[in-house]
Fold this protein.
Amino acid sequence: MSENVTTAVFEQWVRGFADLIAANREHLTELDAAIGDADHGSNMDRGMKAAVAALDESRPPTAGALLTKVGMTLVSTVGGASGPLFGTFFMRMGGSLGATAETVSAGDVAAALRAGLGGIVDRGKAAPGDKTMYDALAPAVEALEAALTDQATLATGLKAARDAAAAGRDATTPMLARKGRASYLGERSVGHQDPGAASVALLLDAAADAAS
Amino acid sequence: MTESTSANAPATDAERRVGLIVVSHSRALALAAVTLAGEMLHGRPLTIEVAAGLDDTTFGTDAVSIMQAIERADSPAGVVVLMDLGSAVLSAELALDLLQDSSIRDRVTLSPAPLVEGLIVAAVAAAGGASREEVAAEARNAVMGKAAHLSTPEPGVAPEPEDQAQAAIVGVFPVANPHGLHARPAARLVSEVRALDASVQLRNLTTGAGPVPAASLSRVATLTALHGHEVEVRATGPQAQEAVEHVLALAKRRFDEPPEQVSAPPAPPRPTPSRSGPLAASPGIAVGPVRRLAAEPVDPALHPAGEPAQEWRRVLASVAAVRREIEHVRVLTERELGPDQASIFDAHLSLLTDTELLGDVKARIRPGTGAVAAWAGSLAEVERQWAELPDPYLRERAADVRAVGEQVLQALTGQPARRMTGEGVLVASDLTPAETAGLDLALVTGVVLAQGSPTSHAAILARARDIPVVVAAGPEVLGIPEGRTILLDGATGALHLDPAPELIEEYQRRAAEAAEQRVRQVALADHPAVSRDGTRILVAANLGSVSDARAALAAGADGAGLVRTEFLFLDRTAAPDINEQQDQYDSIAEAMEGRRITLRTLDVGGDKPLPYLPMPPEANPFLGQRGIRLSLRNRDLLRDQMAAICHTARHSPTSIMLPMVSTPDELIEARQVLVEAAGSSGLPAGLHIGTMIEVPSAALKIEALLPYVDFVSIGTNDLTQYTLAAERGNGAVAALSDALDPGVLRLIDHVCRAASGRVDVAVCGEAASDELAIPILVGLGVRELSVSPPAVARVKAAIRQLDVEHCASLAGQALTLPGATDVRKLVLATMAETQGDAESGTRTGSGVATG
């Protein structure tokens, strides 16, 4: 199984993610209004629009460089905690793929996502069950790795990852927030979906679409 | 994206200071906070960079901007980053990862302090020249005053009991430290817990003690958690999980106690040398039981209570002052001896930021108790709790509590209240000049200081008072239990703990010999000091008061080579007028019975600002406006002083000496002022005008200065520290700051050669009474030595053993050597060689002197 994932696929993923964020901007902001400072949707939308504009200006030739560029753009334009978190996620993915590597295998993609997840843990110091984006991303990465171990294609693996992310996102609803501003609400954070996890679900949606 | 706000910056000045970065979601907030902090700076330069908001109105933080701000603010002094919350913290951490130059990263501290309070405190500390560690520590404690004011039992979360039941995270750790959770590990735990947004309680499961708040050092100690005890950690709040994990991880690392302290009991009592010590500081031999300085008992009744709010402010101000003092010592100790030695001060600092303790003090003040009584009461309570602990090691730590508590009491009462605990050898970390001056000669036989340098003011005063002193002995000496016998030789720096009787005898024999010698010397002190080959060297005295003048005359001084007129100007709100000065100068002249007195004009600088002589704060007062520089900017003051000196000069032999001169222009201008001051009667006939040589450039271009003076006097203390760029009060470089460094000697040689046959050269620094320096100075051509009064007899005796021609060749050799140690070895070797001759020389010398 030696499929090469082209840079165009990654570009499509980023653009698709930007579209989904734009479409769900109000929804994400509403989620954040319940347990945060009601800016997650607009912050992510601003950041992803800037990322797309950066790609419009010049598209790096390799997947690694492209993801690093997206990450750097996000850290400067999102503004909220999602900036450094999503920014680190993309930059670590870019670093994992390497700025110059011209071919990317499905295994490389899984390894890059695993590296991105590691970046989020390092940056946000989130643990499972803290009601954060980690709770959606970690099961997604595991699902992709499991699928690839079973000889699935990247497209199939990312569909499994998308479903796992959605399930992870839904699982954040009954959790008690222990990170970020939501944690200030204590018990009152229970019963609301975590907006960061919701964005991650969109991210995996876009990935599954791009790879299919 | 980023605003650069340099509050009044000459960039070069600012670069020596720690740079600050303000990271906030809101640019408006950040700029306002910077303005607020700027009000505290009073024009002192400081770099504060702002990385806040995505633009003027959009909230958000940007890791790239923060990284750039760090790069702009970076200097060798480092950078402290203050942040608001959430993404500001994450973006700042990311910014560190983004830095290309990893060496910058090592100079950056991300501060957990609250943004506004932290920034203001950090700005004040940084502008004052504090190190990065100090700035960060100040910022970290910034919220303490507010927390204590509001009597919140703890910073962070005040847990409701039901909350605790709901979301508590619980862990258990066994105490692995051999001495249990004593002050140092407890301080480590407390500081770790305080950095987190969580409320943490500890319980000793083995004994059932507790629960106590983990953020309170005094309470943690009461758990008496000994080696092997199980301690439960229960945390609530947003970072409860992290708090428990951190505490458990810390416990596993034995709270970072260094291994040697883990395996051995504290402070092994052995006076081993520190990096540059122990150093001899004041000659003489002393043996006796170790004694300490303890505070005079303060009687709260003597300090009646004012308004509770006012009393509370006094407590906060005193605590803050002591905290700064301890932090300063801590940084010095860390620099000199490493972080392990410095960690004891963390325990002291924790006590001063203990909201539990401060809350208790405040509660006592509220019903009308005075600050002194309230502090004493709360402290006694904490001390009692510690003293009751069953573990003997922990019990001893009650001394730490007492030491810090007394420091605050001292600050509150304004008394330099430390007094020796009995007769014997005083062992202390350092002494202030006031404390040295106040030592009871009936009690003190000698002094051993952990810090300090042989040229510190404390050492100078001790020499003047004939108290044997050894300095820079290292903090180990502070661990010697009181009452153990210690022997010190202030001439060699030797220290012996529990000396054998034979050793004491040996030293006592030497002391007796020295005393006899001294008697012989004093008997001859009134006579001129003439070398074996017939050269007369004047031995004058350095004075700082009229009573010094009487002592100097009694000691046989040939004159007053340096009268420090500062004594007239310090500690008062207005300058002394001409009459007052005249009276004092006349009294000194009278006490000296016709011998020449050399009055140095006011020699102060930014380190000792006078209330009536306003001057802007300087980053480095020793390189700033001081001495003649300051006098020429305050010509009225100088003119008055010169007028008073002229008056005295009309009836007694008087010289006027100008300090800190570096150019001929200064001499010319000062002479103009002198002419104005002398008035219509003109300059007094016998008045000599001279300059001090303290600035290396003045020594190097002495030829340009000579036309304007009748004499020069080399201030070897300042000349040495300016030449070697080593501050004499800094124990870490005390060994460098030696006037016998050939670099300094070459400057003196140059001055003597240029002055030869034109004007006399005197030396009025510490080197003038250093027996190894005297032959070199005389050999170079110095013909007057001005020393502290008790040294006059000894210096005269030393001169009588010299052969000037031989000294000249010795000095010539010294100039070619690489360092001061080599020069000292050379002189010692020569002295040993000529000892036989010297013995007979003494007799010959006496013959000449009496004959």
Observations:
- The mean pLDDT of chain A is 91.
